[in-house]
Amino acid sequence: MVDHLDLSHTIEHGKVYYKGLPAPVICDFLSRDDSRALYDEGTEFHIGRVELITNTGTYIDCPFHRYADGKDTAAMPLSRFVDLPAIVVRATEAQGRVGRAIDASWFRQLDVSGQAVLVHTGWDRHWQTDHYWEGHPHLTADAAEWLRNAGAVLVGIDSMNIDNTSGGTRPVHSILLRHEVLIAEHLTRLDQLPDGPFRFTAVPPKLVGVGTFPVRAFATVTNA
């Protein structure tokens, strides 16, 4: 039996999804009422209009997000987004070791080659609260270097940024994206993932000149 576990946040009109950046606008381009004048009686359609920044909801970062010469969402092969072998790393407060920084020691015992590595911190419990933006868990530069060297193909986290945002440097983004290790941020429900293997999918639109975009991220879990 195969189950699909949604790991994405819902995107709604007017809600702020990244502090300091504008909320999405979701509205009618053509309403159902107005469409009736265009079609035969009994036929109507809705065409929506969406305006949003690319860092909205649950999203994936491609190299172009950090580097002008990096691949955008259109240039990345589809295989880099779909049905990736994946593991979850439980770096929650309940594990007793984590403060804000999640360093390489959390990963050294793992075989991450060719894998999507999803870091479960439990921070998604603060989603849509002021606390979500302050003191969030993040990876360290040595964690990023270890994951890159060990062959991870994607690293995801269920907090507001995979980097420490208290300063102006972003070493985790810089290290991973320079080597085409994709990043997924603002994931959710990682507590529901199995400790055993599963598959991970997070596909953005095929956009030229865009390095970050919202995704419908999900896990495919096979149950005996």
Would you give an account of this structure?
By secondary structure, the chain is mainly beta. It has helices at 32-35, 141-150, 171-178, and strands spanning 2-6, 25-30, 47-51, 59-61, 84-90, 101-102, 116-120, 138-139, 154-157, 182-185, 198-201, 212-214, 218-222. The longest helix has 10 residues, at 141-150. The chain starts with a strand and ends with a strand. The mean pLDDT is 95.
Write a concise synopsis of the structure shown:
It contains 3 helices and 13 strands, in the order ββαββββββαβαββββ. The chain has helices spanning 32-35, 141-150, 171-178; strands at residues 2-6, 25-30, 47-51, 59-61, 84-90, 101-102, 116-120, 138-139, 154-157, 182-185, 198-201, 212-214, 218-222. α3 links the parallel β9 and β10.
Give the arrangement of secondary structure elements.
Elements: E1 2-6, E2 25-30, H1 32-35, E3 47-51, E4 59-61, E5 84-90, E6 101-102, E7 116-120, E8 138-139, H2 141-150, E9 154-157, H3 171-178, E10 182-185, E11 198-201, E12 212-214, E13 218-222
Parallel strand pairs: 5-7, 6-8, 7-9, 9-10
Antiparallel strand pairs: 1-13, 2-3, 4-10, 4-12, 5-11, 11-13
Helix pairs in contact: 2-3
CATH H-level superfamily title of the largest domain: Putative cyclase
User: Any idea of the CATH class of the largest domain?
Assistant: Alpha Beta
In round numbers, the mean pLDDT is 95
Number of strands: 13
Structural class: mainly beta
Portion in helices: under 10%
| CATH level 3 topology of the largest domain | Glucose Oxidase, domain 1
Count of DSSP H/I helices? 3
Proportion of strand residues: 15-25%
Instruction: Going across the biggest sheet, name each strand in turn.
Output: 1-13-11-5-7-9-10-4-12
Give the C-alpha Rg: 19 Å
State the distance separating the first and last CA atoms.
7 Å
Q: Secondary-structure element order, as H and E? A: EEHEEEEEEHEHEEEE
